[in-house]
Amino acid sequence: MAKTRKKSTARKKTNNQGGGSQPLIILIVLALVAASIYGLKYFSDHSEFEPITFEFGSDSAKEDKSVERRFVEEENNESKTELTVSSKQADEPKEEPVAEKEKINPERMVETVKPNEDLPEYNSTDRYYFSKSFDFAWPKYTGEDQIIEHEFYTLKYNEKTEQADWVAYKLTAKNLKNARFKREDDFRPDPEVDTKSAHPDDYKGSGYDRGHLAPAADFTWDEGGLSETFYMSNMSPQDPGFNRGIWRKLEGQVRDWAMSNGEVFVVTGPIYGSRSTKIGKNKVYVPEGYYKVVLELVGQDVKAIAFVLDNEKSSAELYEYALSVDDLETKTGMDFFPSIPDDLENKIESYYDYSAW
After folding, report:
1. What ranges do the domains of the chain cover?
2. Per-residue b/e over 249-284, b at no fewer than 16 CB within 10 Å?
3. Active site amino acids
4. CA–CA separation, 324 vs 349, rounded Å?
5. Cα 259 to the chain's mean position, in Å?
6. 7-40 pLDDT tens trace
7. What is the separation, in whole angstroms, between the first and last Cα of the chain?
8. Architecture of domain 129-356
9. How many other CB atoms are there within 10 angstroms of residue 158's CB atom?
10. Which secondary structure element, helix H or strand E, spans residue 170, and what is its range?
């Protein structure tokens, strides 16, 4: 029994010695592991490169990790480049933004300059572009002439004779149909004449009428236009029998032609003799006769006609006083409608046909 106990004790001692060495081994292993982890962490924190992780597995897995690593490296390089560029841009002075020039499409270009409405304009085949010109209906004139443009008619004033050499205007059927105002005989000097026009008193006791060149009856469709006809620049000394007879008859005939043709242009003026009587304080010349020109341009059947009448009472028919515009130009030395093209001017001024009206 005693021998048996000794053996058991010896075996126990042996076991105790072996168990005491095991904790020491574990501590050593833990220290090594800790040192490895610390070393790897230190290496990772102080290295310029990403830590390389080794995994065991297939070749494709290794390739994926290699690609991932290259991607990380390229991304880091791009980030560094962007930071460098941004840093340079921050150091450079900023330029003011320049507005991009507007691209112009020639097909969509719009004329910005407003056109002159008085300039010639060709509207259709049965209208003539020159009829829109501001001075189309005027006889030839120069820059030295005193041209008075009223709202409803235009005249060239002659200071020597104290009346107009010509009065020009357009007469339309549309306006004549709207006649509704009555004349008030408000004769007065023309304020637009720089050299001062004749005065109503110049006609008092002279035996002559203050005869209209542009008739008052042609403008009864507008109150202002009617009043304008009573400016003394539109007056001329006329024999009462002439003014209230053949001259009045011709004025009515022209209105009838305007109604039937739609629109006509009219030019009227005096004709002086070698010796003219003068009346009034302003010495207004008494004309020997008068002329009137009528031009029609509506449609293709264009035409013109002129008249010359002596300043005296007459019972003759109107057609007896008719003549061509060319003949009138020869008689007066004037040039009517100079803006008309030569070919058309020759056509309408070289002959006349009273019956065509």
Report:
1. 23-90, 129-356
2. ebbebbbebbeebebbbbbbbbbbeeeeeebbebeb
3. 212
4. 6
5. 35
6. 333 343 344 444 455 667 777 767 676 666 655 5
7. 174
8. 3-Layer(aba) Sandwich (3.40)
9. 19
10. strand 163-172
